[in-house]
Structures are given as structure tokens and as C-alpha cells.
Automatic annotation (TrEMBL):
It comes from Algoriphagus lacus. CDD domains: NodN (cd03450). This is MaoC family dehydratase. InterPro entries: HotDog_dom_sf, MaoC-like_dom, NodN-like. It holds the Pfam family MaoC_dehydratas. It comes from the Bacteria. Residues 12-132 form the MaoC-like domain.
């Protein structure tokens, strides 16, 4: 599916309260998990030691860091919405973030987004987007939350 194209507050407003779409599935690999562990200094064995994770862990293998799954949101978001005519975008906040299920290595995930609310704050567009990161072939999502973006259009 082609991303939804947004170029103004009015474009956002047309989709207020509506589902915006879903990204493609994205595979979480052990290499990505290891690189994230190195970048964040979080080398807990449940993430980086496959042998120990299989023998002692609750998930049968290593799992992605929760914050790793959150960090791929920009990549997946761009597959859902393409914002044009933009001076700047700011990640303003996250509300009600809940990590509901571990993402086991080599799982595929995708982002599903709904525009909860959009407001024009004196020329700055504040978009509140309900998101869930679905795990392929799993009932529970990896996480849910509301992402808040500030968009400054030309």
C-alpha cells in the first residue's frame, strides 16, 4: 500500500479519528538486537545470548529490547504516512506506552496507526497517533501507545 500523503493541517484534519494504515512487516534479527545492545549499553543476556536464552529464558530464544521495537517506529511510520511541505517535525511525546508482549528474535512486526486527534496550535500541527506494533501470527501486540508529533509546515 502506498503511504497516505499529508501536506498541511487540512490534510491531517480530513483523517481525524480514522485509521491511517499499516506498514509492511519488518523482521527483527539477532544482528539488530546486538547492535542496539551495543548502542544502548544494555547487554542483558535475554537479548544477546541465544544459548542461555534458549536454556533459561521464558521465551525460547532471545528477545528484542522493548526500546528497539519503539526505535523502528520512524521507519515504519514513513510507510504509512508521507508528510510533505515540511519545515520540521518534532517527536513531542508518548502517552500510555505499554509493552504487552516480547518480540522473539526473527519475528516480523508491523506498525498500525490511527489518527486520534489533530490540532492547529498557532501554525504548529500537533498530531496524536494511536499505534500498535503487531507481531505476525500473534494475538497480542508488542506495544501500544499514543505518539505525539509536532509538524511545522512551510
Amino acid at each position: 500500500m502506498d503511504p497516505l500523503v499529508i501536506g498541511s493541517f487540512e490534510d491531517f484534519e480530513k483523517h481525524n479519528g480514522q485509521e491511517l494504515g499499516a506498514s509492511d512487516y519488518f523482521k527483527i534479527t539477532q544482528s539488530q538486537i546486538n547492535l542496539f545492545a551495543d548502542a544502548t549499553y544494555d547487554h542483558q543476556w535475554i537479548h544477546i545470548d541465544p544459548d542461555r536464552a534458549k536454556a533459561e529464558g521464558a521465551f525460547g530464544n532471545t528477545i528484542a529490547h522493548g526500546y528497539l521495537t519503539l526505535s523502528i517506529v520512524p521507519h515504519l511510520w514513513e510507510q504509512i504516512v508521507h508528510v510533505q511541505n515540511l519545515k520540521m517535525m518534532i517527536n513531542y511525546g508518548i502517552e500510555s506506552l505499554r509493552f504487552a508482549q516480547a518480540v522473539v528474535v526473527d519475528s516480523e512486526v508491523r506498525l498500525v496507526a490511527k489518527l486520534k486527534n489533530v490540532a492547529n496550535l498557532r501554525g504548529t500541527v500537533k498530531a496524536e497517533v494511536e499505534v500498535k506494533l503487531e507481531i505476525k501470527d500473534q494475538k497480542k501486540p508488542a506495544f501500544t501507545g499514543v505518539l505525539i508529533f509536532l509538524y511545522h509546515f512551510h
